[in-house]
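Have a close read of the entry that follows and walk me through the local backbone shapes. See right below:
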Amino acid sequence: MSSNDDRFDGRLLGTIAVVLLGGLLGILNSTMAAVATDTLAVAFGASLGTIGWASTGFLLAVTATIPFTTWAVDRYGGKRLWLAGLVIFLAGSLAAGLAWNVGSLIAFRVVQGVGAGLLDPLVLILLARAAGPRRAGRVMGLMGVVLSLGPVLGPIAGGAILGGFTWRAMFLVSVAVGLVALVLAARVLPADRPGDGGVVRLDVLGLALLGPGFAAVVLALSQSVEPLWPAVVGGVLLIGYAAHARKPSPLIDLRLFANRGFSASVAIMGLGGMGLFAALFALPLYYQQAHGHGVLAAGLLMAPLGIGGSIAMPLAGRLSDRLGARGLASGGAVVAILSAFALTRIGPDTPEVWPALAALTYGLGSGFFSAPTMGSLYRTLPPPMVAQGSSVLYMLNQLGAALGVALVAVVVQTAAGFQGVFWIAVAMNVIVLAAVPLLPGRPNARAVTDEELVRTS
């Protein structure tokens, strides 16, 4: 079906469903593992700091693998790489479920992270290529349902599994779901020919600088003890990549950022993600510490945040394909600001219904600026640059999430407490609102050329 057709046919719907299932797999697994930290520490007789490396190792492997995916998707083809990512993720999940000590668990979680590092940016790449520019907002809105519900459903599912089974079941459930995703992907995903995107030789030096550089910065943000050395190492590597990227055929062309629409899109997604992850991290702590709820109850009380996003993103994405991103994103940012402000007023005596309602409207507001922004991003990119743009977006989202969680960890321990965290969310969304006018205007059917990409609009 032509990408200029506004309708979805059965083949495209099947592709979207299969890709979203694979995308949900990684998000659920990582968030389920996060709620099992105490259980795993007891099971292996390890400290919380040591067992925390099971999650940190996963995150670092994801971050370091993403730049490789940028090149590999054109070298090997999207379908082949997707199937390879699923196989690696499944192997890591099975091995993690059979881990015999904390060292083996951390190692197998790293294997899972490599698989997720292939799958996560491929979700964006495959969907953008399948949908085409005219339907980018609609498809990114559907992906937003996964992004919104995954971080909320993960803790709920993890708490339920740990309540009735051993910790091993948490990883083995991923194996069962992953096998279904693998079989469906093999049957449904359309074959693509490697090299269609104009493959060049792998930029080995760029990969050695960019992947570890971002991973070191994320490590610095995710660790609360002495984060200076990884931050310095990461900064040096990223500066080295910036100098290296001036040469022909870099892994990721930094001229992407010369396009105002692209820069505004990734900035909005990064800042919005930072505020959203701060809320995702702080609200469960609030429900547990201020109201004495357990992990499962706190997860259930978080559901309105994900529900709001899952309602707003498909609707806003569909509307943005006709109306453009600016008006929808501005309205969403205003709602997110007001909702985050409402959360700054909560305290130990606040009935749970009020933060739940504020979380619902926060999800709605965030969804209304996220889906149109993602859609506009893919309307600014010519097809050969979709892989690079997707990797940049995902890496900056990882960075924003890590920074949001790090800020929460610091601020919660100060006199500002939970209110301070939500003031951070207010500030992030105010910046988002200020950046919205830089997004591209109303969509049109003409594709963006490579030459136009490097011009400011």
